[in-house]
């Protein structure tokens, strides 16, 4: 599991990323905003960004949701 730190609204939040290589999926969670999601290796690209943005918009502003979705996408592709 990887832990990334990110800033939103002048608060530092931990973002947890778990990768299951055998079953080819990720679990991403941000406990500070009570948010989590899962997705498979096949979900990368625009499909993943749309899913992340839509899910994050429930907890964050549109701007923050878009920025964080792009960060999550980048961090999981690096793994």
TrEMBL record:
InterPro entries according to UniProt: Uncharacterised_YueH
Highest taxon of the lineage: Bacteria
Pfam families assigned: YueH
Record's protein name: YueH family protein
């Amino acid at each position: 599991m990887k832990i990334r730190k990110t800033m939103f609204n002048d608060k530092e939040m931990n973002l947890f990323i778990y990768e299951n290589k055998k079953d080819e999926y990720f679990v991403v969670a941000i406990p500070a905003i009570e948010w989590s999601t899962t997705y498979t290796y096949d979900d990368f690209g625009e499909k993943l960004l749309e899913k992340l943005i839509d899910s994050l918009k429930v907890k964050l502003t549109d701007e923050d949701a878009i920025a964080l979705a792009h960060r999550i996408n980048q961090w999981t592709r690096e793994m």
